[in-house]
Amino acid sequence: MEAQGTHKKKTILTIGFLGALAGLLFGLDTGVISGALQFIAADFSLSETMQERVVGALMLGAAGGAVLAGWLSYYIGRKYCLIIAAFLFIAGSLLCALTPNVEILVGARIVLGIALGIASYAAPLYLSEIAPEKIRGAMISLYQLLITIGILAAFVSDTLLSYWGAWRWMLGIVAIPAALLLLGVLVLPRSPRWLASKNRKEEAGQVLSRIRETREEVVRELEEIDNSLKIRQSGWRLFRENSNFRRSVGLGMLLQIMQQCTGINIVLYYAPKIIGMAGFTMVSQQMWGSVVVGLVNVLATFIAIGVVDRWGRRPTLISGSVIMAGSMALLGTVLSLNMANGMGAYIAVLAILVFIAGFAMSSGPLTWILCSEIQPLKGRDFGITVSTVTNWLANMFLAATFLTLISTLGAANTFWLYAVLNTAFIFVVFLIIPETKEISLEKIEANLMAGKKLRDIGQPRYR
Ligand code: BGC
Q: Which of 106-120, 128-142, 211-225, 367-381 has the lowest mean pLDDT?
C-alpha cells in the first residue's frame, strides 16, 4: 500500500515536472533574445525600430496565442494544446536559426510567440487541474520557478555562445528542450477535469486513480468536478451582465499591467545593453552580468515561495514595490550624474540586481497567483484568458517602446519614469489589491459578488 502511495507521488511529481517544462520554455524564449540581439543587429544592420520589432514580435504572437488557447483548450483539451505548442516551439526555433533575413526572423518570432501564448495559458491550467489540492499553490510557484530557470539557462547559453557571436545557435538550441517537451507531453495523461467536461467520466476516473492515493480521494474529486461542472462557464455573458465580474476582470488586467510596468522585462531583455550603459563596455562583462541577473531572479523566487503564505500577498507586494522603486531611482541617479564608470558602474549593476530580487520575491509569482484566485468560478476561464492576454500585450508595448524612450528621454529619465511607476504601485496595492492569504476561493467569490470593495474581497465575510 505504502509502496503504491510512493509510486503515485512519483507519478504526480513527474507529471508536474513535465507540465512545468512549458515554464522552462517560456523562460528560455523570453531570455534568449537578450544576448542574441546585439549580434543580430550587427549582422542585419538593424535600426532601433527593427530591433524593437524583433523583440516585440514574440509578445504579439503570444497575445494571439493566449486568445487562441482559451478556445483551443476547450475543444481539444490541455494536453493537445501543449503538443501543438511544443511543435510550434521546435518549428519557430529552427526557423529563427536558419533565417536568411530579418523579415523571416520576425515571422519566426511570431510563431514562437504563438507557442508561448498557448503554453502560458494551458500549462498552469493543466497543472492546477492535475495537482492535489494541498500542493496546488506550490505547483504554480514551481511553474514560475521554471520560468526563471529558463531565463537563466538562456543567459548562460547566450554567454557561452557569444564568444563566437553564434546567435543562430543561441536561437536554434531552444529546439532541444522543445523536443523534450513534446516527448514528455505525449506521455502525459489528459486533464481529468477536461475529460469529465466532455462527458468522458470513465476515463477521468482512470486518470485520477493513477494520480490520487486512495479510492476515496478519486470518488470525492470526481464528485467535486461534477458539481463544479454544473456551474457552466459563461464568461462573456457574465462579463456583459454582471458589474461585479467586470471588476474582477479589471483587477486581473490591472495586476498584469502593473507587473509589466515594473520594468522587469526591460531589464531582462536589455540586460547586456543596460550593463553597457552603466559603464561595462566589454561584451563578455555584459553577458556574464546578465547571467548574474538571471541567477538572482531564480534565487529570489525562493524568497517569494517562503514568505507569500506567511506574510500574505499585500505586504509582500508592497515590500517588492518599495525595493523596485528605490533601485530604479538609484539606477536613474547613477546614469544622470554621469557616474557610469568606476564605482558608479558597480552601483548601477547592484541596483539592477536589487531590482530583480524585488520583482522575483513579489510581483513575479504573486501576479499569477492572485490572477488565478480572484475570478469567480463561472467566469474563471474567461477572466484568466483576459489577464494572460493583457500580460503579453503590456509586455509587447513596453519592449517595443524601450529603445525609443531611451533615445527620446535619455537613459536616466527612462529609469526615473519606472521609479515613479513603481512608487505609484505602492499606493495602488495599498488602496486596491486584496489580501487573499488563507481565504477560500469560495469566500473571495462571495465577497466579490456581494459588491464588497476590491480591497476587501479577501476578508472573512462575516466579522
Ligand atoms: C512575468 C514575465 C517575466 C518573468 C520573469 C513572469 O512572472 O510574467 O513577463 O519575464 O516573470 O521572471
A: 128-142
